[in-house]
């Protein structure tokens, strides 16, 4: 199992909207994530900075990287672009985080 962590930035005041959209995650998006090897995916929010922290457990890096090329993922990025910092293609601006400890 591969553990991944990323940081993203939510626009101020949009935590409730962000959470609402994720609580209603489209079934086809859930299926795509699982089909691409996501075993676990959690997102946490820091209210002091509006940063999001995503933690994933995946099976394979190459398989996971293919999620960016799926139609449903691009549709999701477009849907989420108004609540968080994004790149020109509407993908979220992410910073990969390095694991420094595990118990």
UniProtKB/TrEMBL annotation:
State the InterPro entries in the record.
Dimeric_a/b-barrel, L-rhamnose_mutarotase, Rham/fucose_mutarotase
Q: Name one Pfam family in it.
A: rhaM
The EC category is: isomerase
Q: Which UniProt keywords apply?
A: Carbohydrate metabolism, Cytoplasm, Isomerase, Rhamnose metabolism
One function term, GO molecular function aspect: L-rhamnose mutarotase activity
Q: What is its EC number?
A: 5.1.3.32
Keyword Isomerase attributed: yes
Q: Which domain of life is it from?
A: Bacteria
Q: Which HAMAP family match?
A: L_rham_rotase
UniProt name for this protein: L-rhamnose mutarotase
Organism encoding this protein: Enterococcus hulanensis
